[in-house]
Prior knowledge:
Blueprint: H1 9-13, H2 19-33, E1 39-43, H3 49-56, E2 60-65, H4 68-77, E3 83-85, E4 97-102, H5 113-125, E5 127-135, E6 149-156, E7 159-170, E8 173-184, E9 187-198, H6 202-211, E10 214-219, E11 228-233
Parallel strand pairs: 1-2, 1-4, 2-3, 4-5
Antiparallel strand pairs: 5-11, 6-7, 7-8, 8-9, 10-11
Helix pairs in contact: 2-3, 5-6
Amino acid sequence: MFTASAAHYDLIYSTFKNYAGEVAQIASLLRQLNPECRTILDVACGTGEHARLLAVQGFIVDGLDLDPAFVRIAQQKHPLGRFFQADMSDFHLPYRYDAVLCLFSSIGYLKTLDRVRRALTCFREHLAPGGVLLIEPWFPPDVLDPKRVSTNVGEAKGVRVTRVTRVEIEDNISRLHFDYEITDSNGTTRASEIHELGLFTKAEMLRAFEEAELQVEHDPVGLTDRGLYVARIAA
């Protein structure tokens, strides 16, 4: 989880992530798939930026995340939404939605195909009749370069955050090492996080959808060139 960086998450990702563009694509796709689509559950919602912007598009949006700090931030951004702290592979809400989303490769944090199947089953159980599921996957094996080091710098309102990222691959797990340097009026502090995401092939993901009783199509491009799975409850 983003324990060390939750308060600065938006500052970092605002430097390279086009939330508004992604939400425009999502809104258009959902309306094509179901012109009556109104209610959305954003699973692994993070700080709620997608949820906030989807609400601006006219949708009724709730969210769910494992990280309590993210849930608090998302609720503050989008006070009309209901936000829940829960594990995406094991949650049971008393609501059904026209669409369930799991974006920005968050599905990779489940790390194993068994947990992916369990999550997909949870997602299916929260779909209203005719509902649709959108899943943005993490990278498959043999795509990430363990030699690559990237740096992102965000700066606003007297705060400067530098994040250096390096990748380690071990079997079917990608391990992201995030090292932060945070400078504000109190000086400079440093923090580190390690994030582990599972590396699943397209065939493995398609089989997981099938085992969760979902009919699925795969868009190899999707929102951010990572692909997108579009699924419905199997007939």
